[in-house]
Design a protein that fits this description.
- The complex is a heterodimer of chains A (about 400) and B (about 290).
- Chain A is mostly helical.
- Chain A is built from 17 helices and 4 strands.
- Chain A has helices spanning about 1-15, 15-40, 60-70, 80-95, 95-100, 105-115, 130-135, 145-155, 165-175, 185-210, 215-220, 225-230, 235-265, 290-320, 320-340, 345-350, 380-405, and strands at about 75, 180, 370, 375.
- In chain A, helix 1 (about 1-15) packs across helix 13 (about 235-265), helix 10 runs antiparallel to helix 13 (about 235-265) and helix 11 (about 215-220) packs parallel to helix 14 (about 290-320).
- The longest helix of chain A has about 35 residues, at about 235-265.
- The two termini of chain A are about 30 Å apart.
- In chain B, strand 4 and strand 5 (about 65) form a beta hairpin.
- In chain B, about 45% of the residues are buried.
- In chain B, helix 5 (about 105-120) crosses helix 6 (about 135-145).
- Chain B is about 35% helix and about 30% strand.
- The chains are: A mainly alpha (about 400), B alpha/beta (about 290).
């Protein structure tokens, strides 16, 4: 325990580690969180050429947007949907920029083009105009029947409608409560669609820099001869190093998660936590609400980060060079991400099981894995397998380092 | 207490680093003297059981040390050559870290660390980061870490490297004082260090012990091989190229040369009293 404490302290004492943590925190929490809410993403538009041209009024704008969404009664029905589109058209006609900005026009337009494609007018002049601006609202009926039909078409096109896979997906969708609860969605879209799915891949860069010297750095420091003559030395030390590496990964995650959730609570509050994820992605089949999805995405990132830390520690134990350990660690996550696009679907799916290579946003998709005759919804494997890979790496890292030390 | 090794050998491919060396060491200070590449570090690493020998074994009190594992490491203190450290640690933190690795309880370690920092003259720098230390200060930290567990066998590889003359004298006194009923082995190519404190000296060349004995015994072996010759200044270069010259000093227009040679180098040369340095030069004159 004392050795673990000292190893952990040693890790945090490095200037490079502190700089990395600071940069990571600044990027994820300050820029991706506070400034993004207040300025880049939700500040009212002033200069449309750049997000930096937004006004610094995100907090006020979010409240106004949430109040505007609350006018529709908290449920997404045909009537409330029609009303949303109708209000949008009136803001447009009146040239009321503030109302338009607070309307979820991109989202509304997505629903319209997916559920009412026949209403789209192809010839709207030189510039395409969002359907939401011109569609005849009286024709916006049967929202849920149309959504079910589109989902059926989609599953057919993917070959997922029939058989046990179809049964699994349809069974999940059957549990989705309708009509959907509705509050302001854009804030949740930022959290669940943009920020959280990218968190792991950002952390990977910093974890690689911080953890890759864990074992390899001992060669650079030339401490091996010294460590080997200590009582019980290498094995206990290797375990302490691994535990401190994994703990550090969890701490970095906690730091970012606490910062992220704090920013979220300050700017978005808790409004809309019980909306189904289908309000974000109509064709999602998971019977989950926003809060459940957020818990999953944080869990996915935490387990992925720990899994990745295990891989980095193993790579660090395998080589004697800090630079090589760093390059291999980066290649372990960014290599598959880049390579996946050139590989067949089966190989892509397999690569996604590597730590931080897959995406937490699979909860909005209908991907499955077919294992031992059973179909498993992909998010279940994407959250467990990367963690297990990291766990499996741990004994190998200890063993490999111990052997290297003796050589 | 006895540390012994029997026909200890280490090959690196076709190169023989240590070649069938044997000895039995009882409490005392042992100096391992030899030029760079003589095999001193390899031998010491095998004595510490951190390098496997190609053949031969090391025993502590009759028990083979690799089989003893932690029991041997408990009685061992080691200062490696090019001692590695963590630059962002303070001296105190570094010693606490090594103390934990050595299994010393925290409370005991803290008082021991304070004591050792005082012993090596670093009390005032205890809270300074190691990266700010001079070479000599780092070396002293290295010596302190080797003494943390109050080892019965203390192996120091080039402990005086990087130390200034005052620090070297201090270290020599410290080791002489510390030795008592312990086995202390130190390697060096600084002859005066072993001359000052070693009870026994092993001279290593090409992986073998070419000489062993007490300092007076070894010095006696150099007897009759050390000469003084006074020559005109312009002849000094000639003599330096022809024979091993240990020293020369100017006396008016002449130069007095101290020559190491089996034969009288000149009719004018007179014998003089040998030292360990002369012996060293006799064996390593061409390479040291």
């Amino acid at each position: 325990m004392e050795l673990f404490r000292l190893e952990h302290k040693k890790l945090w004492r490095k200037t490079s580690v502190r700089v990395c943590v600071l940069l990571c925190f600044a990027y994820v929490v300050l820029f991706g969180g506070f400034l993004s809410y207040q300025w880049f993403e939700f500040g009212s538009s002033n200069d449309v050429t750049s997000a930096f041209g937004n006004r610094f009024d995100g907090w006020t704008e979010i409240r106004a947007s949430q109040a505007q969404a609350a006018r529709y009664g908290g449920l997404l029905t045909d009537e409330s949907f029609r009303q949303m589109v109708s209000d949008l058209q009136q803001y447009d006609a009146a040239g009321m920029e503030s109302g338009l900005g607070r309307s979820e026009r991109t989202l509304l337009n997505g629903w319209l083009s997916q559920l009412y494609p026949e209403l789209e007018e192809q010839d709207r002049g030189l510039y395409s105009v969002l359907m939401a601006y011109y569609v005849d609202t009286s024709q916006l009926t049967d929202f849920y029947a149309r959504r079910d039909a589109v989902l059926e078409d989609f599953l057919h096109s993917q070959g997922q409608w029939t058989g046990p896979e179809g049964e699994l997906l349809r069974g999940m969708d059957a549990q989705v409560e309708k009509p959907f609860r509705y509050q302001w969605i854009s804030g949740w879209q930022k959290v669940l669609g943009d920020a959280l799915p990218d968190l792991g891949i950002v952390m990977a860069l910093f974890l690689a820099i911080i953890l890759s010297p864990t074992f390899a750095g001992e060669w650079r420091n030339n401490t091996a001869p010294l460590l080997l003559t200590t009582d019980g030395g290498w094995r206990r030390l290797a375990l302490a190093k691994i535990l401190s590496g994994l703990t550090f990964a969890a701490e970095l995650f906690a730091l970012l998660a606490i910062g992220g959730v704090t920013a979220q609570l300050i700017f978005l509050g808790t409004s809309g936590w019980d909306m189904p994820v289908q309000t974000m992605k109509l064709l999602a089949v998971a019977p989950w609400n926003m809060l459940q999805a957020e818990i999953y995405e944080y869990g996915f990132t935490l387990l992925g980060v720990i899994g990745y830390a295990g891989v980095v520690l193993l790579l660090s134990a395998l080589v004697k060079s800090n630079v090589l350990a760093l390059l291999l660690s980066l290649a372990a996550v960014y290599g598959p991400v880049v390579a996946a696009q050139y590989l067949p679907m089966g190989a892509q799916k397999a690569l996604e099981l590597l730590p931080l290579v897959g995406s937490a946003s699979d909860i909005f998709r209908t991907n499955t894995f077919h294992l031992f005759g059973k179909y498993i919804w992909s998010p279940y494997l994407l959250i467990t397998v990367p963690f297990l890979i990291g766990v499996v790496c741990v004994p190998f890292a200890i063993l490999k380092w111990s052997r290297r030390q003796k050589a | 207490m006895e540390l012994s090794f029997d026909r200890l050998t280490k090959h690196y491919g076709s190169k023989i680093a240590v070649d069938r060396v044997s000895a039995a060491l009882t409490p005392g200070v042992y100096g391992l003297l030899g030029a760079n590449g003589a095999g001193k570090t390899t031998l010491m690493r095998m004595l510490c059981a951190i390098l496997e020998s190609t053949s031969g074994e090391v025993f502590f009190n009759g028990e083979e040390v690799t089989g003893m594992g932690a029991a041997y490491r408990n009685v061992l203190g080691y200062l490696p050559q090019d001692f590695g450290y963590y630059p962002h640690y303070t001296a105190e933190e570094f010693l606490a870290y090594i103390a934990t690795l050595k299994g010393i309880p925290r409370g005991t370690a803290q008082s021991r660390i304070r004591e050792l920092l005082g012993t090596v003259g670093l009390s005032g720098a205890a809270k300074k980061k190691l990266r700010t230390f001079s070479g000599g200060m780092k070396q002293r930290v290295g010596i302190a870490q080797a003494l943390l567990n109050d080892p019965k066998v203390l192996i120091l590889d080039e402990p005086t490297a990087g130390l200034d003359p005052k620090e070297r004298v201090h270290l020599r006194n410290l080791l002489a004082d510390y030795a008592g009923d312990r086995i202390v082995i130190l390697s060096t190519h600084i002859v005066s260090d072993v001359e000052a404190i070693a009870d026994q000296v092993f001279v290593m060349k090409n992986g073998q012990f070419i000489l062993r004995g007490t300092v007076p015994e070894l010095v006696r072996q150099a007897g009759g091989k050390v000469w003084e010759l006074t020559v005109p200044r312009e002849q000094a270069r000639f003599w330096q190229e022809e024979v091993t010259v240990a020293n020369f000093r100017h006396e008016g227009d002449n130069v007095v040369l101290r020559i190491i040679s089996d034969q009288r180098p000149s009719e004018l040369a007179v014998t003089c009293k040998a030292t360990m340095e002369d012996l060293y030069l006799y064996h390593f004159g061409g390479e040291a």
